[in-house]
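My convention is simple: the sequence line spells out the residues, with the fold written below as integer tokens. I include a record here:
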Amino acid sequence: MLHNYLITALRSFGRHKLHFILNVCGLGIGLAAAMLIALYANLEGNYDKQQPHAGNVWRVEQYFSQIGAKVPLANQNVLNRLSNLPGIEALYVLESRPVGDEYRVDGNSFKLDAIMGAEPSIRELLNIEVLDGNLEQALTAPDAIALSRSNAIKLFGSVHASGKTLQQGEKRWTVAAVFADLPQNTHFAFNGLVQKSPFSDFFRNNDGYAYLRVTPGTDIDALTKALQQGYLELAYPGADSNIVALSLARLTDIHLNGGERFEMKTTGSRSAIYICIGLSVLLVLLAGFNFVNMSIAQSARRAKEVGVRKAMGAGKGQIVSQFLTESVLTTLIAALLACVLVELSLPWFNQLVERELTLNYLSVFGLGMLAVVLITGLAAGAYPALFMAAFSAKRVLSGDLERGKTAIAVRKTLLTLQSGLSVALIIGAVLLQQQLQHLQTLPVGYRHEGKIQVVDIDSSKLMYTQNSQLLERVRAIDGVKQVGVVDIDITNSFNSSMELSSANGVLANQSVPFIGMGMDASKLMGLELIAGRDFSNATASDWFHLPREGEAAAAALLTESLARQAGFQSPEDAIGATLTTRDGRDTPFTLTVVGVVKDIRVGSARGEQAAPIIICGYTVNWYSRLVMDIDMQKLPAIRDELGTVLGQAINMYAPAVEVLSQNYAAIYRNDAKIVQLVGVFSVLAIVLACFGTFGLASFSALRRQKEVSVRKVLGASRISIVNLLAKEFLTLVAISVALAFPLTFYLVGDWLGNFNERIDQSLWVYLLAATAVAAITWITVASIAFKAASSQPAQILRYE
């Protein structure tokens, strides 16, 4: 029987080639998109699930409300004191370490980043495959280092590097172990491990990624409250209880729920996953709608076949089985096309989502996709099969093919849904693109165009002392217009804050983020000075200094908002005022305001941001940056020359150079992915909708060809006939627009609500989407209707 069904299905495909091709192409595109998204979602949703005790490990995170910063770092010494709280089984710390000098091997310099401190128990936290040597030994000796496979090959040309040495400044390291590069489905990112510094009683620095392994069944909320109380008592005694809020993040949720600041590597986006899954489901549904629509529309052609089968004794179940077999076979063929499309588009898709995805057909994932294909085939073919199996043999063979309105209602409903989804996706794609452009063109208070920065320079060589000689040598490079120093990546986040008090009493130990910069700060960074002056070499006391023993002083620039918060009636009133705080050594620190600049935004436009203060020549960060205003046409030559100048001056022969405008664009990388994905899926949705409309228009024109011929005989023009056939479809588009507008307005508005700075939803975007879908529908129907209207009436009516 199955053999008979297959033969019948293949013959049906041959007789109805257009119907078959449209169904295979529509389902193939929908399934290919679903496979790509499923691969991406499967990877993103399984980060760190392979780690030991993954379900019971939580990371400690802090939120500083006064500066609006959520950071995944904490003070390891405080948490070590609190590690005996009920429910905590173990504390693991990955210690953030300064980059330090370059590593030298056989006279060659290498830049090694992401070297972290860890304890020998690190393998209880995450799976690390040791390729050579002894990892535990590497983490117990002060001069031993464990390298990743890629770093070992980069330095020594082999993974068998145990016992070899490398020089970093005055320190000599011995390679004690080599471990495999970490897989991409983990939020951990380091290229080397060394012994972690011992715990101490210093409770203020946030210098470690701290993970707690808790007893199964532990009340996480209660544990968080206990940690919060103990943390405040040790790290911030006597301070406002709202200065910091602790939270615990489940290890397996970090990748999709992580923040934008200080993560080991770029995190994912849960909203992007949900959007992708939703879009892929929509595409499969659109393809399924096409299949159902065209199968029902084709029913008139196959009604006599069903009638004859029934007259010869075929039961309803056999008819259903026949058409379900055709449906599943069509879907399997479409799945083969989908696999071809996936293989062809994977390189492009990997670049889009910044992942390395591969499709293994023999894996559990492959079997899952096969199950989805079979379910799709059965679900899409179920209604057409039941519909055609319900034909009455007597009515069909007597020429009475269809009297009911159910099939018509189903076709119209599905077409309306198709059009509505197309309208919604076009609106979403345009508005998301507008929002992204709005974010990227926001006035941030500084210039990032035409600037580069050299990162990870030891602050002792830039900020602790004023290195004028180095700056002059860099400024002399052809193409460099200006150079200065900054202690943060201004496109990323603040690194430090201080408690400021003003002489007028308006500010009293208020936590304020600060940025350390060098001379001519506002000129270098493009800050808009609205009162006072810039930091200047003409006033040597601007730079951080110690005027008397036990005191510190420096000049400062206030942002406009901070000047208002400090109680100054105008920017001019702030000039000459003093603010007091304490430096990193707890020394009284006096800041003299020499200028006020327009507000600047550091990092992303999401959420509120505290107003910072800019201090001349002061930092508490391990490393700082050289920022240069350059002729971007000469960037390659400048990059090469920097290696020579910095190598001679500070032994940095392989400087890491970043383009500031690229860093700024990277802030919204996840949002850009969503915009691109929605744009691509919108195009695919419109293509699938066109397939469905084209198929249905073909059957509609065939069904009404006698009516068209009679109208032509009576004098109707071609354009009137085209509009007559298109009218039904345009009416459905109008209904779909009425349904899509309010739903889309709500969903897009909800997404825009995540941004502190956002666009308004414009009416013209909605009208554009509706017009585009209506125009595409009319053109698709007109291409069929015009052919029908051009036929000779005599050829159609000669048998009447």
Q: What stands out?
A: The chain has a mean pLDDT of 82. The chain has 24 helices and 24 strands. The CA atoms of residues 335 and 370 lie 8 Å apart. The first helix runs from residue 2 to 15.
